[in-house]
Amino acid sequence: MYGSGDTPRPPYLSYGQWVEAEDPARLRKKSAEAEQLFRRTGITFNVYGDSEATERLIPFDLVPRILSAREWARLERGIKQRVGAINAFLYDIYHRQEILRAGRVPLELVANNDAFLPQMIGVSPPGDVYTHIVGVDIVRTGEDDFFVLEDNARTPSGVSYMLENRETMLHMFPDLFSRIPVQSVSDYPKNLRRSLAASAPPGCEGRPVVAILTPGIHNSAYYEHSFLADQMGAELVEGHDLRVVDGRIAMRTTRGYTPIDVLYRRVDDDFLDPLNFNPGSLLGVPGVMDVYRAGGITLANAPGTGIADDKAIYSYMPEIVEFYTGESPILNNVPTWRCVEPDGLAYVLEHLDELVVKEVHGSGGYGLLVGPAASKREIARFAKKLKANPGNYIAQPTLSLSTVPVLTRQGLAPRHVDLRPFVMVSPQSIQVTPGGLTRVALKQGSLVVNSSQGGGTKDTWVLEE
Amino acid sequence: MLGKTAGGLFWMFRYLERSETTARLLETGLRIALTRSAAAQNEWASILATAGVGNAYAERYDQPEAGRVIDFLLRDRKNPSSVLSMFGMARNNARLVRTALTREVWEATNECWMAVESALAKPVAAKNLPQILANIRQQSALVRGALHGTMLRNDIYNFARIGTFIERADSTARILDVKYYVLLPSVSHVGSTLDNVQWETILRSVSAMRAYRWLHGGDVNPTGIADFLVLDGQMPRSLVFCYRKIVSNLGYLAQNYEQRNPCHDKAESLLEQLQNHSIQSILDLGLHEFIGEFLRDNAALGRQIEIDYRFTE
Asked: Is B251 in the same domain as B120?
């Protein structure tokens, strides 16, 4: 919020004046009110392996994270460029593999990768769209320094929090929004429905039937699945509601089986189809891959998109963007050491105390070493794991993430944040909802923002021009 | 509409209805315990039987004893029929069918659950029971109010209502069944105070003490009560009332879906049988036998609806 000076940076000026004039006691009261609101609405996430309190609230902080229209315009261009390249990369990887032939990405990185699905080779999804929904994780380290931390191209979650956070802010501080012009995010569900409908199989007649496939009410993101289904006017289905009927995927309704055109699936590739992938899966639909390959349904996202957001592939993103767009990347990657390379491993082992080491296939902040915050014993233990399986890890420098104030008992205090903007891809367009989900590390000095690790969220404002 | 969603709604409202029944039974039990301690143990036993958990209770405890029965029926998480378990399951179903509910119905259900869970976090002393039961009743009234005030009168609403009335018919029939012997003319007790109190218990179990008085004045007699609970179409918990509702809600589905199913014939013929009876013909047949058959038919209708509307695979 303050940059390097003592006065708020320009996007925060109006808000800064407002918050200064507010009584801290009133803000704390509002904060408690917001929590009540979230509880009443049931905006919760489930914590695995925690039988007593299986539903928890993600802490919400009521100080917004604010971006100027100019800052956002650049981010938006960078995100669209990157997501466009990701789709081109996926098409290429599952067809002619030119980028591998050109030697820009090592062949073995793709061939030996679990996220690469041979079942997708030669399959062209409708409109050649692979990633209908993407959440690009971005961090900021300086006035103009934005880095992409991760491209979530499988089943990114969090968009319901983006929407509910804004609803909550509008509800609690209507006056604030009449003083400060903020770009709206509320069209997201409508736009998502349109974007998905536009990706329906070519043979689809009439208004496409869209459904969301959830693993069920015990999934950590179930609230989001039901929220989106509700907002989009889509059916919320589970694997056992679906079956193959006459070469289509159909859902069991009170009046018989109704075919689905577009399935926004929030089930991982591995669980999608017990006939084609993990045979033990109860979450998927037997035979859905065969219907998909025959063009009977659109799956969003397409199976096999994980090869594009894999953390080892990530380090090649600058090359990938250049290869497919002919432009240099607008958004930078975080410098990344690949432990699979001997030089990389040697450097990482040397500098474990200053690096963040991640599992290539990990997510949710699990299996992660934050060097500067780790004890000597933790580092030694991690070094062992690393040496045993170097190909499983990448390492990045510890970035000094930007901070935004949060409301604490002692008043406002800075905490580190990241940003996950949400992108929709259809055959016609790539759209980015202004802002996204700001995640915030609530512990002082902490850099881990994941909700599963005690992070919270904030409303994210992109100001009007 | 998904078959699973229809099933989720049907059961959500059965659970809510059942939790109310249990709460009402507890209230009746408490009243008996307070006013006639000699009859209390019998009364708790018959309440456990009515709630269908007599055996489950007996497996864990010896004699029915006020504190234990209250805890078992109210807040025992291991008892799937306890008020707390029922509300938990109703809310779970509400999450499952979240997209079919208005925001108001969902929030009322969620708040109801939060209130019940916190009210029942600790064992409830008998002296606090009336207050807590009143609170629970008020919370579930809010859910019903939200349903009536905000839901479209479409298939969603009708599945919710069908679940409500199948469950309600079941519980009224059970109350009668457990107490049928009280209503039988018996030489030794006719006109005695014991009978009067027992009869009143039945009416209290269905929240119909005052309603009965309005209709019948002070004349509380066994035939009148049985008639009231089985055949009186004005009484919202009578079997005839429930079946008129079920037939009408199912009729809506047939019209809306342009298809009649086996459940329609079944429900209509059950209603017809009920309406063809007089209370005398039921008593001649044997109240216990009549109720036993009704409970079996009612359960079979529930299963038929489940099949006809594809609640499960």
From this structure: no
CA angle B134, B138, B142 (to 5 degrees): 170
Mean pLDDT of B279-285: 90
The domains found in chain A, sorted by start residue, are 10-334+399-462 (no CATH), 335-398 (3.30.1490.270)
pTM of the entire predicted model: 0.90
Residues in B touching A226 (Cβ below 8 Å):
95, 98-99
Category of A233 on φ-ψ map: left (φ > 0), alpha (ψ -120 to 50) or beta = left
B145 with B157, same domain: the answer is no
Sequence-ordered list of residues with C-beta below 8 angstroms from that of A180, at least 6 positions apart, any chain: A14, A15, A18, A461, A463
Q: Which of B107, B114, B257 comes nearest A255 by C-beta?
A: B257
* Pick from B2, B95, B257: CB nearest A235: B2
Name the domain boundary from B117, B151, B185: B151
Measured between beta carbons, the chain B residues lying within 8 angstroms of A222 are 95
Residue type, A149: L
Q: What's the gap in Å between the CA of A398 and the closest CA on chain B?
A: 40
CB contact under 8 A, B6 and A254: yes
Contact state of A217 with B92 under an 8 Å Cβ cutoff: yes
Identify whether residues B73 and B135 lie together within a single domain: yes
For A194-246, how does the pLDDT look when each residue is reduced to its tens digit (9 = 90+)?
999 999 999 888 999 999 999 999 888 999 999 999 999 999 999 999 999 99
Nearest CA in chain A to B111: A40
Chain B interface includes A255 (CB < 8 A): yes
On whether both B63 and B105 belong to a single domain, the answer is: yes
Asked if residue B145 and residue B175 are part of one domain, the reply reads no
Residues B49 and B117 placed together within one structural domain of the fold: yes
A447: enclosing H helix or E strand: none
Cβ contact B267:B250 at 8 Å: yes
What's the total number of domains in chain B? 2
Contacts of B310 in chain A (CB under 8 A): 252-254, 256
Q: Which residue type occupies A392? A: N
Q: Provide the domain limits for residue B30.
A: 1-151
Structure tokens at A263: 């399935």
The answer to whether residue A50 scores a pLDDT higher than 70 is no
pLDDT computed for residue A52 by the predictor: 45
The confidence band for B194, taking pLDDT boundaries of 50, 70 and 90, is low
pLDDT tens track for B220-257: 788 888 899 999 999 999 999 999 999 999 999 999 99
Tell me the count of A-B CB pairs closer than 8 A.
Answer: 59
Cross-chain Cβ contact B257/A240 below 8 Å: no
Q: Which residue has the higher pLDDT, A332 or A310?
A: A332
Would the pLDDT of B72 be above 50? yes
Q: Which of A227, A253, A254 to probe by mutation at the B interface, max B CB count within 10 Å?
A: A254
DSSP of A225-260, one letter per residue? Answer: HHHHHHHHT-EEE-GGGEEEETTEEEEEETTEEEE-
Q: Is the pLDDT of residue A364 over 80?
A: no
Q: Which two tokens stand for residue A441?
A: 């590390």
A222, A229, A254 member nearest B1 (Cβ)? A254
Angle B106-A169-A184 from CA coordinates, rounded to 5°: 100
